[in-house]
Amino acid sequence: MLEIRLAQETERESAANIAVEAFVPLKPILPNGGWQEMSGRVHEVTINKQYGPLLLALLDGELVGSVIYNGPGEPENNVFPPDWAYFRALAVLPAFTRNGIGRALTGQCIRRAKAEAAQQIALYTADANTGARNLYLDMGFKQYGEKLKFFGVSYSKYVLDV
Fold it and tell me: Is residue 147 part of a domain?
């Protein structure tokens, strides 16, 4: 059974390690040095509570994914309008992808945004991450604004009216 819940402080290290593992499939597209930078950043934002609440996905009690959710007005939001909710670093272990876990984590972020009266929820993802891009489009997100560049690769922003 899949459970989505807030992380305990003691679970952040495990979640950060899993998040880094989940991003490994992007390693081949990154320029020289890009993987060290990306993996370090993914670990940092997942482990540090200053970046926002961490939601965990547990399948039959096993930690298989996570996402960082930020409600409207959060100080860490420097990409989207301040009254938008957003999420980042959505990660699912490669062995568990395409099983609805990313959809469940995204759905929980949407429910939180609605509960906090956000009008929009947004995210950004690597253009090369076609699985994630297809998921967000399937859930009704629309591409928004100009592309970003992180770790030497292009990222697109997506928004959903909630």
Answer: no
